[in-house]
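=== Structure Prediction Worksheet ===
Name of assembly: unnamed complex
Input type: mixed (protein and possibly other molecules)
Chain count: two
Listed entries:
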Amino acid sequence: MDVLDTIRDQIETNPVIVYMKGSPNQPQCGFSARTVQALMACGERFAYVDILTNPEIRSKLPEYANWPTFPQLWVGGELVGGCDIITEMHEKGELQSLVKEAALPADES
Amino acid sequence: MTVQAVIEEKLRAGLSPVFLQVDNESHMHSVPANSETHFKVVVVADAFEGLRAVQCHQRVYGLLSEELQSGVHALAIHAYTPQDWANRTEAPVSPECIGGQ
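=== Predicted Assembly ===
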């Protein structure tokens, strides 16, 4: 599969997916760590892709997303943002409601 | 001209911000001294009115695409409308580096 098809498939089939450096348990960058911490605090399941071990995705996603850096959080097939946006949404309580709403259909099926 | 100065100039030209602060935070990361790789931008502009957060950041990234392709590794963006900015006292602190590339 073409790498762009892979990316499309990932963001369409996973209601909540984060592209990050390292894994949620072992993030390799402070920005990824902070993002995933906020995400885990929401208490919903989420998918992740470690871009350090997926160099093709690392090189192609920024252009596709019109977003040059990592981490990137995608919810419901749309880019929500990087560390700064996620942190601020988390502080305002907006992240949890967004993530919970996105995770709903999966729970019902 | 330093990268920091270029960033400031491009953001001033592109957004006519009412407040702009660009900090070089490279010293907080595992790069050589005096590097210009990690920056924090606090920008307040009317141009962000009505945009979602992700769109505000995309405006900033768009203006700095050359810098991001040539050495700037991380850009913390705190973009606000003048009204949002009036409701807060300062932008959040960036995370500490924990290694990695």
